[in-house]
Amino acid sequence: MSNVAGGGPRILLRRLREIMAEPSSAQVRLDKLVRIIAANMVAEVCSIYLRRAGNVYELFATEGLNRDAVHRTRLKRGEGLIGLVGETGEPVNLSDASAHPRFSYRPETGEDPYRSFLGVPVVRGGQVYGVLTVQNRTARLYDEEEVEALQTVSMVLAEIVAHGGLFDTAELDEPELRADRPRAFKGEPLSDGIAIGIVVLHEPRVKVERLIADDPQAELARLDQALDQLRASVDQMLSSTELDLTGESREVIEAYRLFAQDQGWRQKLRDAVRTGLTAEAAVERVQDELRIRIARTGDTVLRERLHDFEDLARRLQRHLDPHAESHSELPDSAIIVGRAMGPAELLDYPRERLLGLVLEEVAPTSHVAIVARAMGIPLVGNVEGISDSARAGDTIVVDGETGEAQLRAAPEIVRAFRTRRALRDQRAAQMAQVRDLPPVTKDGVRIKLMMNAGLLIDMPHLQESGGDGIGLFRTELQFMVGETMPRLADQIGLYRQVIDAAGDKPVVFRTLDLGGDKILPYGRWEREENPALGWRALRIALDRPALLRYQVRALIVASASKVLRILLPMVSDVAEFNAARALIDRELERARLLSQPQPRQTLVGAMLEVPALMFMLPQLLRCADFVSIGSNDLMQFVFAVDRTNPRVSRRYDVLNPAALTLIRQIVRSAAEAGGDVTLCGEIAGRPLEAMALVGLGLRALSMQPANIGRIKMMIRSINAREVSEFVDRLCARTDHTLRTRLTAFAAERGVVLK
After folding, report:
1. 607 φ, ψ to 5°?
2. How many C-beta atoms lie closer than 10 Å to residue 389's C-beta?
3. CATH number of the domain that 74 lies in?
4. What is the pLDDT, as a whole number, of residue 278?
5. Which of 334, 358, 595, 681 is the most exposed place for a label (fewest CB within 10 A)?
6. Inside any domain, residue 358
7. 3-state DSSP call for residue 77?
């Protein structure tokens, strides 16, 4: 098979291009194609099998087998050697095909004399479209160059099939293969609202227009230059301690640098170019092989590595084509679709044109989700596979209430969602009517409804929602969205604007809650095996006291003549709180000695997220002015569940008797000690959960501003004493979740939960 070496593959690709340009029918071109491949590879048989409906592989063309078998021979999924190639997505190379346990004899093909067999998948975008095979009578294994040549041809064939270059893929009666078919995705609702718009890819996949190289040496030079530029750009990101474009942490950039220098990856790309592909097509081919191989393993570590290589491949494509599609210019009615995103990247998009967001990898409590909610942008997360299915310009419907994403939706689906959106608008109008009404239960119990915030753009929501104040202002967002640490003047300016915007309403500033999944772009962080339980929040502040004092100094200046409320995150014991409060007192003393304006009063509270602290509440409340329950982390630690891991996070419900009993104990312990207690977390903004919290004795809740209206409507429809008695009885039960019982209770008494 000497024809394969040297110029063989390139000659084959040129002939392939010529055949595709012919005005003849699809079958005639396929027949010519198998003849050309067989002749070029000195094979006695060449056959093309393509997928039909139900994952059946049908013989579409052959050179060497019985032509009467074309369109008659069909193998089910996993059947025979063809099914094995389609199932694994890997080449199958055998010296004696009939001896393989998966061999399926089909007498109509007349393949009895042929012993050697090489089959490669026809793959595009991780999708197997068919199988391309060659066979010979001689019993021998095909060498690496022959396998490489056939894979190159199959890659080009896949592109042609997918784009209808041979025939309309609808002829296959396989909707799964149609690139323009409607797709319904189910994810996790992370930010409320319904959006109907067009897809903008956050990391757009570069469309490869030119597959076959005119000058392979020139393509190699282009590839090498782009690889050098890629490595340099990754090194630059690392040396300047900036985050990469996908918002991943510094550790991922370290991994990127290793992957960008991966000689095996580089060699695969160069080998693909040597077969006659353009540099862009070579990148696509290597990525397709990686996708199909890693997807079959189910190994989560390998899948993470695939994401790294996917990012690298996209960056490499942009170095090959600097004019590749960018997301810097947004069309009207844009809905961003991507794998992952950081909060700074979301803020880079012009808000007036951004309608919605769909991400494959995002946790409910991640900062991009928090920012999306603060901006009022519907967000559906953990939508597996949508990045590969979506194309720029596709119509998409996003429902942040149900977690649905309808890609290329049919007109009747779009109409249905428009109707739902109109109903939501009506409900929002109803909530606006109660904005200025007090959140008081039927039996006269007043509940404070506070708002969570983290950016200046959140502040108008305080007036719009009718909230009683800011129960949690996340100060770390200012630190995370910039490329350098904010100067003292910048911090003072932000805090002063927040206080002024709040007017007479209180604002609780939480000091920097860094670490875990919240990494500064310009900071150096050591990798931790379990960052959620590692060096974060107050632990960092006590080890780096200058950081806390610097922030407190800004808060003191900004709060001159006002009441300053400071909340310390991740307090584990009373000694930690006292150490941090001592640092705050030193800054207050410094301001006094320098005759600087000071707050009228300074209140310092502790965030109760670590379960150990609840056993020390009486002692804590002798020195702390208030306590705020951070339900997100508290429940994660209580149930030993990683709340960012969907495989386990959904197994546990916050309406479990253990969770309710825990919160009841905290509320009672705080009451006995004479301390104020608030709860800020996702559960505060859900009507059913908030009803239970009121029943447990909580009288102050802090939530996203969009939820204040419906929580207020719920509160005004309940009798607090009734709810308290019912929830108290539920705490003694052993149910996995009390959700059904609470829902039935609310329905019987006409509680508003919408």
Report:
1. -90, 125
2. 18
3. 3.30.450.40
4. 86
5. 595
6. yes
7. coil
Pair 508, 553 in one domain: yes
In a domain, 36, yes or no: yes
DSSP letter string, 559-581: TTTSEEEEEE-S--SHHHHHHHH
**Residue 654 in tokens:** 């916050």
**What is the Cα–Cα distance from 292 to 271, expressed in whole angstroms?**
19
The strand pairing partners of 45, in sequence order, are: 135
Residues involved in catalysis: 367, 680
**Token pair listed for 649:** 């996070």
User: Does the global pTM surpass 0.70?
Assistant: no
- CA-CA distance, 350 to 374, in Å (whole number)? 15
What pLDDT band is residue 92 in, cutting at 50, 70 and 90?
A: very high
Name the strand (E) or helix (H) holding 482.
Answer: none
The position carrying tokens 């009451």 is: 671
Q: What percent of the chain has pLDDT over 70?
A: 80
Report how far Cα 657 is from the mean position of its chain's Cα atoms: 31
Residue 604 to residue 556: CA distance in whole angstroms? 12
492 secondary structure, DSSP code = H
According to DSSP H, which parts of 89-215 are helical? 144-162
The answer to whether 225 and 266 are in contact (CB under 8 A) is no
In the listed set 277, 293, 320, which residue is the last one of a domain according to the structure? 320
- Mean pLDDT is highest, among 20-34, 230-244, 528-542, for 20-34
CA distance 525 to 667: 36
How large is the angle between the packed helices 720-730 and 687-695, nearest 10 degrees? 90
- Mean of the per-residue pLDDT values for the chain? 82
The CA distances from residue 334 to 183, 394, 397, 686, in Å, are 18, 10, 11, 28
Tell me: do 386 and 256 sit in the same domain: no
Q: Which domain holds residue 391?
A: 183-204+327-425
CATH number at residue 314: 1.10.274.10
Question: What is the b/e burial string over 411-443, where b = at least 16 CB atoms within 10 angstroms of the residue's CB?
Answer: eebeeebeeebeeeeeeeeebeebeeeebebee
pLDDT band at 253 (very low <50, low <70, confident <90, very high): very low
Residues 486 and 444 in one domain: yes
DSSP 689: H
> End of a domain among 425, 451, 468?
425
**DSSP single-letter state for residue 704:** -
126 Ramachandran zone, left/alpha/beta (phi>0; psi -120 to 50): left
Q: Do both 47 and 141 map to the same domain? A: yes
Domain count, the chain: 4
CATH number of the CATH domain containing 464: 3.20.20.60
Q: Are residues 352 and 462 in the same domain?
A: no
CA atoms in the 13 A half-sphere facing the CB of 627: 33
Beta bridge pairs of residue 98: none
User: Of 86-100, 389-403, 452-466, which range is least confident?
Assistant: 452-466
Same domain, residue pair 143 and 284 = no
Rounded CA Rg of the chain: 31
| CA-wise closest residue to 370 among 396, 344, 399 | 344
Query: How far apart are alpha carbons 477 and 481 in whole angstroms?
Result: 6
Co-location of 530 and 614 in the same domain: yes
Residue 729 lies in a domain: yes
Distance CA 576, CA 257 (A): 38
Same domain, 389 and 469: no
Q: Is the pLDDT of residue 237 over 60?
A: no
Q: How confident is the model at residue 132, as a pLDDT?
A: 95
DSSP 632-683: HHHHHHHTT--TT-HHHHTT--TTSHHHHHHHHHHHHHHHHHT-EEEEESGG
Nearest to 553 by CA among 587, 508, 509: 587
**What span, in angstroms and rounded, lies between the C-alpha atoms of 213 and 473?**
56
CA–CA dist 462, 473 (Å, integer): 12
Provide the token pair at 533: 């339980």
Beta bridge partners of 122: 130
What angle do the packed helices 488-502 and 545-558 form, to 10 degrees? 50
